Amino acid sequence: MILAHLRKALLRELAAWAAEQGLSAPEEALINPVPPHVPADLSLPYPMQAAKALKRKPLEVATELAARLKDLRSPEVDFPLLESAEPAPPGFINLRLSEQALVWNLAMALGRPADGDSPYGFDPDAPKRAINLEFVSANPTGPVHVASARAATLGDSLSRILRRRGHGVRTEYYVNDVGRQVELLGRSLHARFAELKGKPSEFPEDGYHGEYIKALAAEAPPEAEGWGPPEFSRFGVERMLTAHRRDLEELFLVRFDRWFRESELHDAKALDRTLEKLRKLGRVYEKEGAVWLGSSDTEAGDDKDRVLVRADGRPTYFLSDIAYHEDKLARGFKELIDIWGADHHGYVPRMRAAIEALGHPPGTFHAIIHQLVHLFRGKEAVKMSKRAGEFVTLRELVEEAGLDACRFFFALRSPNAHMNFDIELAKKQSQENPVYYVQYVHARIHSIFREAEKHSLRTSPGSHKEPTARALLVKLAWFPEALRNCERELSPHPLASYLMELSGLFHPFYEQCRVVDTHAIETSGSRLNLCAGVARIIADGLSLLGVSAPEKM
RNA sequence: GCGCCCGUAGCUCAAAGGAUAGAGUAGCGGUCUUCGGAACCGCUGGUGCAGGUUCGAUUCCUGCCGGGCGCACCA
Question: Is the CB of A49 under 7 A from strand B?
Fold first, then answer.
């Protein structure tokens, strides 16, 4: 929060200075954390950029600018923001926050989000976005696979963070409840059911072979004797969907605001309407009996045109997908963000092309592509095939490794990171998961609170001189910035990394600064206050990641 | 063959073009009569290769090497 004010104040000052120099104003005042050897809180690299444009010496520019920044103030607060602003080679300005600024920021961090409309981390200046975030959307033809854990973590954590930032976000799960895969599910169940009844059956060639199919067939009601594959399809989809909801929402704590069924589109004739709209816009043509979208003729960069309606008259999956996205936009969303595995990345340009062809502004559609998780058991790669039934379920992993360990583990990784995930290690050595490192600090602080309670010591605002305490205060100020980075990167991993760093700073403080001390009530009070801030941010940050913050471990 | 992603410490990963590349974990050596040893402190260990752009490159560009994933009138 204080850093947002600082950035704004810096930007004003830099813009004024730039105008005097005949430069265009910088778009943003970029501030960076400093490396350990630098005795400051933050650094401003702007002088080096300005020096280039002005063809002047960077350090000279930094010196000139630093002098102007010393007494920097913000209209939102009534104290000076900085204690010092010093030029440093090759052309940084190193900033040290004022004590008032740090104390004020701690108070903001400790404010109760539930009470106000401006919780810590909320960004009043950011333009509000209306986002539909779709993720997982696994076919209801089998249990939720471990491979979905990454997308589920990404989507759920990101949606929580974006909401905290003040955006309107609705999460959505698209259910492919019609089509070939679902038919195959019905035929597989039909065959397994017949087997159970000792009747002759023909198991479909590409059918689903997993044991769960047999188990599911065994659960079919008595009247299933008279069912054909379509009835088994319906039965199977409903059962699978129920299991998906249970695994994702109850087990993995991933919430979807809407479970949208493809069949809803067919019922509403949405495919016809979308096709008609594209036709009117002149974006489709017929060739060789099929209807094509002129997707290569767009800015989206699709390399070829795509079939919407096959020569036999059946619509492609692509068309229903377009209709689905059109439906989301009709519901008022301005941005559609889909989270897809890297195995679908080739689908991005055509989807973008379709959105463009429908006349929506560029940037309406965005795909977050996450790299696939390669599963191992020890050294051995796990092949995953739903049809062969060889896979590890999400439930299996969570029940063995623990929810917190799983969610934090995936949250730490950038979507672009290719990762090898050793299931044995995850199950066996869950103690090594960094999440415990973070949770431990939270539990430790609450232990301090319990100790303070015994001596009737209470938190009180106050300043902090010790370097370890000051480092914590500065780190607390970075929390909103971490959330901002999450929004920019469209990933929760900057927050997870931040929590690791914050936690790492607590222990040195703990070792050097005795908190509970009945001979120093005032110091105890201000240190308890700092502890409260750290605990609050850890609990808050972990909750944004869907991870618990236990008071005892 | 073309396209997208990646290659960073033994392992799993960070790092808005910024300073001496950070964490966790593993390894080695220390720290236990006070708030939690699931801890702390110290040491060891580094950007695949070759060029280029830049005051400055893990980051951008080119080429190479290695890996993952795509390239349907499948979903």
Answer: yes
